[in-house]
Amino acid sequence: MIHAPSLAIGAIIASITITLVIFGVNNSSNEIELSIEPTPEMDQIGPKKITIDTFLSNGSPILGDPNAPITLVEFGDYQCHYCNVFFQSIEKDILKNYVDTGKVKIIFKDYNIIGEDSVIASQGAHCANDQGLFWEYHDILYSNWTGENNGWASPENLAIFAQQIGLNMNKWSECMKKGSHSQIILKSNDDARALELTGTPAFFIINSEGKVTKLFGAQPFEVFKKIFDNQLEN
């Protein structure tokens, strides 16, 4: 598990045009070309431009081989029902068949659209990341999901989850008290809005040549498999 996106990805993608394939409910698709531009050094007036950082920055550490040819970026909310469906019924097959075999790496990014507990849960995950346990905390959050805005992700429960995965509670609690990772969470949400996302989960699959495929919702594993296999073959 690496705590920064692969530099090789940025070098390949940052200066090229990508293709966005949008899958609808009828499995129809259309292609839209988006220009990825170098990340601006200063704030700009007007809508935020899409850059490689829009996909890869302000997120989790990489899960998988940092040199894997395909990057799967998930924008999710820890209280989201269909994000939990993806975690429980789809992600395991992706991990087994593509991440564990070095073909795909995963980055998770926050898009907090449900409630305050979603933001606090994101803080919990990033504070766990300070101790190298982001993905363990991510997993225990979804493993304890029971609904939206019903209290399962309360500060008290988040602390219990932190204890269960063996975090140093003094360090984790201090991080939570300070809101140490508020900026990365806000920036990730800004990235989601720049990409005009309207819900969670939303996925971007980026191959080594810079082609980006966009998927909405907890699509079946077979949909991910088809895209992964096609990109690996070409």
Kindly describe this structure.
A hairpin with a 5-residue loop joins strand 1 (17-23) and strand 2. This protein has a six-stranded mixed sheet. The chain has a single domain (7-11, 18-37, 68-233), classed as Glutaredoxin. Helix content is 43%, strand content 16%. It has 234 residues and is an alpha/beta fold.
Q: What tags apply to this protein structure?
A:
globular; alpha/beta; 234 residues; Glutaredoxin; 10 helices
List the topology elements.
Elements: H1 7-13, E1 17-23, E2 29-35, H2 52-56, E3 70-76, H3 81-89, H4 91-99, E4 104-110, H5 116-129, H6 134-143, H7 155-164, H8 169-178, H9 182-194, E5 202-206, E6 212-216, H10 221-233
Parallel strand pairs: 1-6, 3-4
Antiparallel strand pairs: 1-2, 3-5, 5-6
**Unreliable residue runs:** 1-46
| Helix and strand pattern | HEEHEHHEHHHHHEEH
Instruction: Return the average pLDDT rounded to an integer.
Output: 84
Number of domains: 1
What is the chains' assembly state? single chain
- What fraction, in percent, of the residue positions are helical? 40-55%
- Which range does the strand content fall in? 15-25%
Separation of the first and last Cα atoms: 27 Å
Radius of gyration from the alpha-carbon trace, in angstroms: 17 Å
Largest sheet: 6 strands, mixed
CATH superfamily: Glutaredoxin
Write down how many β-strands occur, each being a DSSP E stretch of 2 or more residues.
6
Could you name the CATH class?
A: Alpha Beta
What characteristic shape results from the CA principal axes? globular
Strand order of the largest sheet: 2-1-6-5-3-4
Number of helices: 10
Named CATH architecture: 3-Layer(aba) Sandwich
CATH fold-level name: Glutaredoxin
Instruction: Please state the structural category.
Output: alpha/beta
